[in-house]
Amino acid sequence: MKMKNSIIKLATMTPSSSSPVLKRKIEITLDAAFPHTMNKDHFTVNATSTNADTPDYVRYMNVISVDDATKKMTVMFGGAISGKFQMSIRHKDYGLIDCKGKILTVESTVTSYTPNTGSIYGGALLTITGTNFGDLITDNPVSITHTAGAAVPCYVKSSMKTTIKCRLDTKNVVKKEGDTGTMVTFLKTSEEAKCEKPNCNWTYTDKISSVVAMTTSYDAANERYQLKISGTGFTGASNDDVQLEISTGKKSKTTGLVVYNAQTTLSRSATEAVFAITDIPTGKQSGANILVFFPEGVPKGIADVQKGFDFEPKLSKIYPNIGSTAGTTITATIAGIGVDTPVGPTGLQLVDSTGGPICDELKITAYSKIQCRSRGYAIKHPGMKCATFDNAVIDKYKTVEDCYAFLKSKTPDMKYFHWRSLPNNVCASCKADYDGSTKGLVDDKAKGNNVYYVSPTAKTAVTVK
Questions:
Q1: How far apart are CA 89 and CA 43, in angstroms?
Q2: Among residues 62, 90, 106, which one ends one of the domains?
Q3: Do 57 and 33 share a domain, yes or no?
Q4: How many C-beta atoms lie closer than 10 Å to residue 192's C-beta?
Q5: What are the helix (H) ranges across 284-423?
Q6: What is the CATH number of the domain that holds 228?
């Protein structure tokens, strides 16, 4: 028998705790003196419960990678009942690694949460701090439980290993001042996260913000719709403390709940808050689709003023504003429309001065943003005349194509065609200035921006006015 010169130990283990219900990678480092080449298939790793009632409860871990240079291995822990577990590592040639005192703690804890009081109508946004939470919003359901009556769910909005944010339900939550409950964070619904300091008591309060009016308006200077609420005792220290959310009408594939989009808070005071409408599915919304939250949750009186709105589309930007007669891709900004706004003959259209539709195809790409492929058609200019330099003028209101054909017939070798609005009688005033030798563009500064072109060979200048 060959005796070992030294005992190889488990040097470090990170992390040393894990969730009871979630998979977690654990990095293990052995003593640098480990004499064998690291091979993930040569190790067996497990953890055995130290609880006297469950001494035979063992959880095995898969070794998923090794690094021989650093004598490290990464194992996957798949969860276990809450408790403490003694680590054990065996190598096929070396035998048992010394893991004495290396304990894996399996638990999830709540160390604090805020606020611990909220509106009698629900809606408070809770921030829960603790250990070994999941990264998915479905990993750790949260509720306020009561000794009598149904629990109030707190819908998780974000979840990380140490922090959960959730908002209390607002439906059918009508409590009274001083009612109490307990905040419970579940671990995949199989057990609860241990609540350490403080305990997880919850209290409902009616000392909350009060709303007496809700109005909407169009802010022409900033080209956007706004919603304002007025009242008394508005709480919060910053714009972020007051939130307006509007329903998308669509359910999340993850939670099955209706998704609400937060709008932008522009200002707040003790008596009013103003929001920019920045993300709504359509310009018509019922009062039931509108939610307002303060730090304590839903304010008093909001149900009495939620009247909804029906915004008129407001066109503020269009690009480009000049395009090809064959069709052009146009983008436009139109406040008050969303991705679910109907388009077409019975819905939203872009039209020209005669009321005819501009777009062959129009789609709404995001709130207030559209993309349109314009129709190909002859452009008409209501004050346009086609003329030669001898002031021979054909009919007004001709298309650009007709005007070009006329000028080409007068000057077959014409190679340039330019048009813009020009002063009346420009051709008569310019006739004497043409010397018959200029090739191309005559100096427009001398003509007061009366730009015209000449034929390279024929002594006939042409212009469009």
A1: 7
A2: 106
A3: yes
A4: 16
A5: 302-305, 400-410
A6: 2.60.40
Q: How many angstroms separate the CA atoms of 462 and 465, rounded?
A: 10
Indicate whether 351 belongs to any domain. yes
Query: What is the spatial distance between Cα 65 and Cα 79, in angstroms, rounded to a whole number?
Result: 19
Q: What distance in Å separates the CA atoms of residue 311 and residue 276, rounded to the nearest whole number?
A: 13
Helices and strands (DSSP H and E) totals, the chain: 3, 35
Number of structural domains, the chain? 5
| Single pTM value for the model | 0.72
- What's the rounded Cα separation, in Å, for the pair 102 and 121? 48
Q: Identify the sign of the CA torsion 256, 260, 262, 268.
A: negative
CB 78 within 8 A of CB 51: no
The CA-based angle 373-377-378, given to 5 degrees, is 140
Question: How many other C-beta atoms can be found within 10 angstroms of the C-beta atom of residue 347?
Answer: 11
- The DSSP code sequence of 248-274 is EEEE-TTT-SEEEEE-EEEEE-SSEEE
Cα separations (Å) of 300 from 126, 127, 206, 317? 19, 23, 8, 39
Q: Same domain for 66 and 132? A: no
CA 116 – CA 197 distance, rounded (Å): 13
Across-strand partners of 267?
274
Q: Is residue 73 part of a domain?
A: yes
* Same domain flag for 128 and 180: yes
Both tokens of 383, joined, read 């004050």
Which of 82, 106, 130 corresponds to the end of one domain? 106
Which amino acid belongs to residue 35? P
SS3 for 241? helix
Residues 214/228, Cβ–Cβ less than 8 Å: yes
- Provide the β-strand partners of residue 27: 14, 74
Token digits of residue 23: 């998979």
428: enclosing H helix or E strand: helix 426-430
Sheet of 359-366, strands arranged across: 314-319, 329-335, 369-374, 359-366
Residue 5 lies in a domain: no
Do both 342 and 406 map to the same domain? no
Q: Evaluate whether residue 2 is within a structural domain.
A: no
What is the separation of C-alpha 398 from the centre of its chain, rounded to a whole number of angstroms?
49
Q: pLDDT averaged over consecutive 10-residue blocks of the chain (465 residues)?
A: 73 95 94 96 97 93 97 96 95 96 94 94 96 92 90 95 96 88 84 78 96 96 96 95 95 92 97 97 93 96 92 91 78 94 90 82 94 71 43 46 59 47 34 31 35 36 38
Tell me how far apart the alpha carbons of residues 418 and 318 are, in angstroms, rounded to a whole number: 24
CA-wise closest residue to 309 among 225, 210, 243: 225
Contact 168, 297 (CB under 8 A): yes
Closest CA to 91 of 5, 181, 30: 30
Domain containing 120 equals: 109-205
